[in-house]
Design brief:
The complex is a heterodimer of chains A (82) and B (957). Chain A is an all-alpha fold. Chain A contains 4 helices and no strands. In chain A, helix 1 packs across helix 2, helix 2 packs across helix 4 and helix 3 crosses helix 4. Chain B is α/β, with parallel strands linked by helices. Classes of the chains: A mainly alpha (82), B alpha/beta (957). At the A-B interface, helix 1, helix 2 and helix 3 of A face helix 22 of B. The structure holds iron/sulfur cluster (3 copies) and FE2/S2 (inorganic) cluster. The site of one iron/sulfur cluster (SF4) has 14 residues of chain B, from helix 4.
């Protein structure tokens, strides 16, 4: 599996394992919070880019969650660069 | 009643735990002791030492030698003080003419059948028989050696670590009792009667042919030189000792390293050790020879590419080279293109320093640890449900359990000293429930009550735990008061509704797990109705695509039945390596600073930024598998690996090897040229646990001191190397001793604020949290509340693993460990432990074997979606048909060539425990193995700096 396929697979797997938490909205919030908490910045960016460019291999819950997670991603702190 | 004893003294019989006290008089001294204390112990507690031979305070009194006879006013005869309980008002005399005469006569009889070669005996200076002869004033032996005697008895040298010289045996049976009571193996017996009685291993064969597991308890118990360490026979008695901690498994046994100069003569389990109370296993006691093995890397080495010979250089040059390469990579590929991996085998202080170097020096959060591949789901699952990423109990807590559930763990092999304690409790009558595809040895505990075994299909844990919970809830076996008092109601109601669904009923789950519903119902009832039910689990829980769900499912079960927050209950992860708990505590994970403080927590991060003097990244970094993927994708280019062998221990070897080959700079710090080092550009010599100061934290959160007993072979302790690298990179570190690192940890980690080396000296060990609220630490967690307030039930839907059998891969492979080897085996393979396990084999059920025409010892090709390898067959009925099993202690076996990328949904912990495979008879090693051998040969030549290999050798495949 290439890197993007791995990330898609991971996102779907996280969604599958949280799909029984309440309504779809509640479940999506859990998945989004999981991604926010555990994924590296570069991984988040790649999966967001994929959602916007195609997204077809992501299951519906993962799609909603990634869209939600997008808003919480923090910009790279300027004073770390260089 | 809490009693403090001098751990170096033998009080003769075990302590009584009674709260009732009795007062008596011994030699005119008034003494007060707990009821049930023997007269011998009562005397010893007041420094009145009664002669003894067959008694020892880790064994129940036996009363065979009679040397400990005393006189008690108003009683007839001279009773044995070891078997006589102290009673209120007793008047005891331990020394008078009559007693002296009796004792001399007894000693005379012993000595008359004992070789008088004291001066040349290996136990000279450490022999209780000699001591007692002195103590009773034996001056002559009236009986010659002409009569019948045992002086020509045969010696048994079969065990690699100790020998048995029957001519010296006084038949005190301490060895037999140690094997039964301390170790729980029952390998020894006293054969024959009277003069003919003698100690026998198994059915009269030698030790190696018996059930003996070489724990050494009998050797330690033997008062003479009959059972004796070969290292002492060879090198003589040690002259000083230092207390330290075993570096093998998560039990964290304390040892006295008994030394002659800077040579370890023997390791003796320390009675004052709170995790092991003076017991050990074969690894900790005997397998320390690797530390001085000739394969040790003694000099720093560098090379430009992995097909170049290694060049021995000075420390300065190696560190400068490493720092330059790291900076170049970062300049070219960006801040996030480099990272580091900490080790569960290194100390807390070393682990802390590596993650600090990554976060503060590399300026990113690309730090991870080998716990990724073992207990990361424990961290995730327990934090989500109970609020703390750690087990809830002390080991001793098991002695209060009425029902013990063991899930996916094999304590007698992987956590042997705790396995022995568990067996002791099982012999006392506690009930055992094992949830495991394999019939583990615990099920064969001698004197076990009728145990329950739920042999489920690999990969169906969550279905099973849900079924158990379903029974508890539908049959009204919940602890409603506990739930109302301690648990979050909303989460509980949601979980209750989820678990009540009929799809979780054992009858409906049977088709998934393969375990009959009535067995599941019985197990659930047994656990839920027990006064104290405890759950212990291991990698058979975590190393699954639903590892985290299963950990939460276990916590659900404990919460639902109120089995949390007191002795005898709890949720207990059995950690694999010695410092898995510590490496997780120390902030090794990419999303958490030390003390499990999330990198996005602004307040926590600010404290670290202030003390570390740099700005920190607030987003998580890459985990090990993400590092590999990014390396292959070309965005991750340099890695610093301390004390880990990711090339051997991580799944899907082909993938790992191509990731490692994609790196521009791989820095490996290890005591040997491990599999990962074969892909490295910088090799920095590591130091073994004997060569450094620091602390390890065991599976019960116990922080134990590791003390330096010999100088570091290559001149530096591991933390010093990390410090040098940080300084070379321009991030200053100036610690003079690991205690200063611990002080910094304490200042930044809320659960460690009370920890210091001084406190560790004072208390011996500390179970965290240790802070203002709990100044001496906390043995049992969650007694009053949870760190997250209320216990959180979690919804754990069963999602089948993608690793499924089909026509091409019809069998399920699962992996595990054995007693004598440790993890990737780098240490134990370099000791005599090899005699027990010199190759990994594939265990196949007779019916699967018959179908394929496989016989014991045949070479088998094992193929999965990831790769192929070849192992020898062993026909075994320990697993169900359809399941095959192997260990992963030998690199050439390539067990991880066949394990796949499948991993836990929450943490990416690899699914080592489930791989769909096919097995067939073959006549030669697999292609990977052939390449492995060629590559290994080449790398060993390159280690010798043999440039000639460059022209004729290749094989780097
Ligand atoms: S070494 Fe351990 S298992 Fe072997 S006989 Fe001695 S006590 Fe028993
Ligand atoms: S071998 Fe040692 S411990 Fe065992 S009976 Fe003989 S003297 Fe006692
Ligand atoms: S049980 Fe574990 S810690 Fe104890 S001696 Fe054995 S390997 Fe070492
Ligand atoms: S020590 Fe009491 S009978 Fe042997």
């Amino acid at each position: 599996m290439n890197q993007l396929d791995t990330l898609i697979h991971m996102a779907n797997q996280i969604a599958d394992n949280n799909s029984h938490y309440g309504t779809q909205e509640e479940a999506a919030a859990r998945v989004a919070s999981h991604l926010t908490k555990f994924w590296a910045r570069s991984m988040k960016q790649q999966i967001i880019d994929y959602l916007h460019s195609d997204g077809s291999k992501l299951n519906p819950l993962a799609q909603i969650a990634i869209a939600q997670m997008q808003s919480s991603i923090r910009p790279e702190p300027a004073d770390l660069c260089g | 009643m809490l009693q403090h004893f001098d751990p170096t003294k033998d009080y003769g019989t075990p302590a009584s735990l009674s709260e009732t006290l009795v007062t008596l008089e011994i030699d005119g001294v008034e003494v007060t002791v707990p009821e049930g204390t023997s007269v011998m112990r009562a005397a010893a507690l007041h420094d009145i030492n009664i002669p003894k031979l067959c008694a020892s305070d880790n064994l129940e009194a036996f009363g065979s030698c009679r040397l400990c006879a005393v006189q008690i006013d108003g009683r007839r005869g001279l009773p044995a003080s070891c078997t006589t309980p102290a009673e209120a008002g007793m008047k005891v005399t331990t020394q008078n003419g009559k007693l002296a005469k009796l004792r001399r006569n007894i000693m005379e009889l012993y000595i008359s059948d004992h070789p008088l070669d004291c001066l040349t005996c290996p136990a000279n200076g450490d022999c209780e028989l000699q001591d007692m002869a002195g103590a009773v004033g034996l001056r002559e032996v009236r009986y010659g050696f002409d009569g019948e005697n045992h002086l020509d008895a045969e010696k048994d040298h079969s065990n690699p670590y100790f020998s048995f010289d029957a001519s010296k045996c006084i038949v005190c049976s301490r060895c037999v009792r140690a094997c039964e009571e301390v170790q729980g193996t029952f390998a020894l017996t006293i054969e024959g009667r009277g003069f003919d009685s003698k100690v026998a291993a198994g059915q009269g064969g030698d030790f190696m042919d018996s059930d003996c597991v070489s724990c050494g308890a009998c050797v330690q118990a033997c008062p003479t030189s009959t059972l004796m360490e070969k290292s002492v026979i060879d090198a003589g008695q040690p002259e000083h000792s230092i207390v330290t901690t075993c570096a093998y498994c998560g039990v964290g046994c304390s040892f006295e390293a008994e030394m002659k100069g800077d040579q370890v003569i023997r390791m003796v389990p320390y009675k004052g050790g709170d995790a092991n109370h003076g017991h050990s296993c074969v690894k900790g006691r005997f397998a320390f020879g690797y530390a001085t093995h000739s394969d040790r890397i003694k000099h720093p080495m560098i090379r430009d590419s992995i097909d170049q010979p290694w060049r021995e250089v000075s420390w300065e040059e190696a560190i400068a080279f490493a720092a330059r390469r790291l900076k170049e990579v970062q300049a070219q590929y960006g801040r996030e293109s480099i990272g580091g991996i900490t080790s569960s085998r290194c100390t807390n202080e070393e682990t802390y320093l590596v993650q600090k170097l990554v976060r503060a020096g590399f300026k990113n959060n690309n730090t991870d640890t080998c716990a990724r591949v073992c207990h990361s789901p424990t961290g995730f699952g327990l934090k989500a449900t109970l609020g703390e990423s750690a087990g809830t109990q002390t080991f001793d807590s098991v002695m209060q359990s009425d029902v013990i559930i063991v899930i996916g763990a094999n304590p007698t092999d992987a956590h042997p000293v705790f396995g022995s304690l568990m067996r002791k409790r099982l012999r006392e009558g506690a009930e055992l429930i094992v949830v495991d595809p394999r019939k583990i040895d615990l099920l064969k505990t001698p004197h076990l009550k009728d145990a329950q075994h739920l042999p489920l299909r690999p990969g169906t844990n969550v279905a099973m735990i849900n079924a158990l919970a379903h029974v508890i809830v539908t049959e009204g076996l919940e602890d409603k008061a506990f739930i109302a008092d301690r648990c979050d109601d909303k989460a509980y109601q949601a979980w209750r509704e989820f678990i009540l669904d009929a799809r979780h009923a054992p009858e409906n789950v049977e088709a998934i797990t393969g375990v009959p519903a009535d067995k599941v119902r019985r197990a659930a009832r047994t656990y839920a109705t027990a006064p104290n039910g405890a759950i212990y689990y291991g990698l058979g829980v975590t190393e699954h695509s639903q590892g985290s769900s299963m950990v939460m499912g276990i916590a659900n079960l404990a919460l639902a039945t109120g089995n949390i927050g007191r002795e005898g209950v709890g949720v207990n992860p059995l950690r694999g390596q010695n410092n898995v708990q510590g490496s997780c505590d120390m902030g090794s994970f990419p999303h958490e600073l030390p003390g499990y403080q999330h990198v996005s927590d602004d307040t926590a991060r600010a404290r670290f930024e202030q003390v570390w003097g740099v700005k920190l990244d607030d987003e998580p970094g890459l985990r090990i598998p993400n590092m590999f993927d990014s390396a292959i994708a070309g965005t991750f280019k340099a890695l610093y690996v301390q004390g880990e062998d990711i090339a051997q221990s991580d799944p899907n070897t082909h993938h790992v090897e191509s990731a490692l080959k994609s790196l521009d700079c791989l820095i490996v710090q290890d005591i040997f040229l491990n599999e990962t080092a074969k892909f490295a550009h910088v090799l920095l010599p590591g130091s073994s646990f004997l060569e450094k100061n620091g602390t390890f934290t065991n599976a019960e959160r116990r922080i134990n001191r590791v003390r330096k007993v010999m100088p570091a072979l290559a001149g530096k302790e591991d933390w010093e190397v990390t410090q040098d690298l940080a300084n070379a990179l321009g991030y200053p570190m100036n610690y003079g001793h690991p205690s200063e690192i611990m002080d910094e940890i304490a200042s930044l980690t809320p659960s460690f604020t009370g920890v210091s080396y001084d406190k560790l000296e004072e208390l011996g060990s500390i179970q965290w949290p240790c802070n203002d609220q709990y100044p001496d630490g906390m043995p049992t967690m969650h007694v009053e509340d949870f760190p997250i307030g209320r216990g959180q039930f979690a919804i754990t839907e069963y999602v089948a693993s993608e690793e499924r059998t089909n026509r091409r891969f019809p069998l399920l492979l699962t992996t595990g460990r054995i007693l004598s080897q440790y993890n990737v085996g780098a240490q134990t393979r370099r000791t005599d432990n090899q005699v027990w396990h010199d190759e990994d084999v594939l265990e196949v059920h007779p019916s699967d074997a018959e179908l394929r025409g496989i016989k014991d010892g045949d070479w088998l090709g094992i193929s999965s979606r990831a790769g192929q390898t070849v192992l020898r067959a062993r026909i075994s009925e320990r697993m169900l048909p359809g399941v095959v099993y192997t260990t992963f202690h030998h690199p050439g076996s390539g067990a991880n060539v066949i394990t796949t990328d499948s991993s836990d949904w929450a943490t990416n912990c690899p699914e080592y425990k489930v791989t769909a495979v096919q097995v067939e008879k073959v006549s030669q090693p697999s292609e990977w193995q052939q390449n492995f051998r060629a590559f290994e040969k080449l790398q060993h030549q390159l280690l010798k700096g043999d440039a000639a290999t460059l022209t004729d050798g290749n094989g780097a495949g």
